[in-house]
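Researcher: We plan to redesign the surface later, but first we want a full-length starting point. Tokens attached.
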């Protein structure tokens, strides 16, 4: 019986000693922090399977992401945006009477948007890491009301690249999506070139820049029992694209919490 009590006593003593040592170490760190803040990096590796699961969850549980078509404006060679004015078209009906058709009135009843889809023509919306680049095939469908035709449905997929950068002004990681090429289906050749330009313009201008993560969301204060609080502040982020994986490096500064 005494052996049992001795073992229990030893176990309890061991736990107390570990807790005491941990408390002393944390207290020592907190005592030093006001003099010189400690900084380190945390590495997080995200693979393509992670983004597959993320996209699957988005399309299964949320509304399909959609972007309004960027119609009626363009940029000249100097980069100045100008508005395109739709004119009314006149034609003769079967009775010989002149009738006017307005492209704007036709578009009122047409949901002129680009909607992201999980899959179109066997191509899935995905994120790929290849040769140091982030590639993103994007499947989509949408509607457009060209003059004299009415509401036209279209679908296809876009070859897209994403460039990541750290925006110091917002303290966040942002992405810039660039459409390289659009492959259309379902238009029977009607307005294919025009729709391609509109889709490219819409994705380039309506989505960019895409804020991926705000470092404030990754900063927090951790209470340490019987020692105080430790503030972990995310102060920087960088990334490296490897084959089928993305390495994200978060830089943290440790200070005494309030």
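Model: Full-length starting sequence:
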């Amino acid at each position: 019986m005494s052996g049992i009590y001795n073992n229990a006593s030893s176990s309890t003593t061991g736990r107390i000693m570990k807790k005491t040592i941990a408390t002393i170490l944390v207290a020592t760190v907190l005592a030093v922090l006001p003099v010189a803040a400690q900084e380190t990096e945390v590495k997080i590796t995200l693979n393509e399977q992670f983004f597959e699961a993320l996209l699957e969850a988005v399309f299964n549980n949320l509304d399909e992401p959609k972007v309004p078509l960027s119609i009626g404006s363009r940029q000249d060679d100097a980069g100045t945006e100008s508005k395109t004015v739709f004119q009314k078209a006149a034609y003769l009906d079967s009775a010989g009477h002149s009738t006017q058709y307005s492209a704007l009135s036709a578009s009122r009843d047409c949901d002129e948007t680009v909607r992201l889809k999980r899959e179109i023509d066997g191509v899935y919306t995905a994120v790929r890491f290849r040769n140091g680049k982030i590639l993103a095939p994007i499947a989509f469908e949408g509607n457009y009301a060209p003059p004299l035709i009415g509401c036209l449905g279209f679908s296809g997929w876009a070859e897209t690249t994403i460039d990541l950068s750290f925006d110091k002004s917002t303290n966040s990681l942002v992405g810039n999506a660039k459409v390289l090429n659009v492959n259309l289906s379902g238009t029977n050749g009607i307005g294919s070139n025009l729709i391609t330009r509109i889709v490219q313009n819409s994705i380039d201008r309506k989505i960019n820049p895409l804020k991926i993560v705000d470092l404030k969301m990754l900063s927090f204060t951790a209470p340490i029992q019987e020692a105080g609080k430790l503030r972990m502040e995310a102060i920087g982020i960088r990334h490296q694209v490897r084959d089928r994986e993305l390495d994200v490096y978060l830089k943290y500064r440790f200070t005494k919490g309030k």
